[in-house]
Amino acid sequence: MITRRLLAAFVLALAIAAGATTLTPAAPASAAQYNWGAIAYDWNGRTAWAVNYASEPAARYAVKARCGSQCGYFTFYNSCGAVAYTSDRRHSAWARGYSTRGGAERAALSRLSGPKYVAAYACTSR
């Protein structure tokens, strides 16, 4: 009798285990979506921006192609970025990772003193 009970318990456990695997929720279909952006700038005041690229290298390549090899650049994803200059363009500052255009612009401007202006901003889709 003990053997029948053990066999019945084993079969029941096996059935539950098989049923449990079919009731397990599926994993998410895809990983998190990243929309990459970049802003390039140079000391002559030239700027270029690119948004909603699938990868950081693609966004970087796009702005370098538009601005030129002499331009500096920065990248960001699922957010906004901005670059600012002093009026004489002797100094520049940039900000990235902000949820709004205004936040990115204020952050870039706050890193400079004296007369200054925002030269470019860009925001990706989120």
Summarize, please.
The chain is an alpha+beta fold.
Itemize the secondary structure elements and their pairings.
Layout: H1 2-23, E1 36-41, E2 47-53, H2 56-67, E3 72-77, E4 80-86, E5 92-98, H3 101-110, E6 116-123
Antiparallel strand pairs: 1-2, 1-3, 4-5, 4-6
Can you describe this structure?
- This is DUF4189 domain-containing protein.
- It comes from Gordonia asplenii.
- Pfam families: DUF4189 (PF13827).
- The protein is α+β, with helices and mostly antiparallel strands and 126 residues long.
- It has a domain of 88 residues.
- Helix content is 35%, strand content 33%.
- It has 3 helices and 6 strands.
- It is flat and about 40 Å long.
- 29% of the residues are buried.
- About 8% of the residues have low confidence.
| Helical residue percent band | 25-40%
What's the alpha carbon Rg, rounded to whole Å?
A: 27 Å
The overall average pLDDT, rounded, is: 85
Total beta strands: 6
Shape: flat
What is the string of SSEs from the N terminus onward? HEEHEEEHE
Distance between the termini: 64 Å
Low-confidence regions: 20-29
What is the beta-strand fraction? 25-35%
What's the tally of helices? 3
Largest sheet: number of strands, sense, barrel closure: 3 strands, antiparallel
Which secondary-structure class do the elements indicate?
alpha+beta
Spatial ordering of strands, largest sheet: 2-1-3
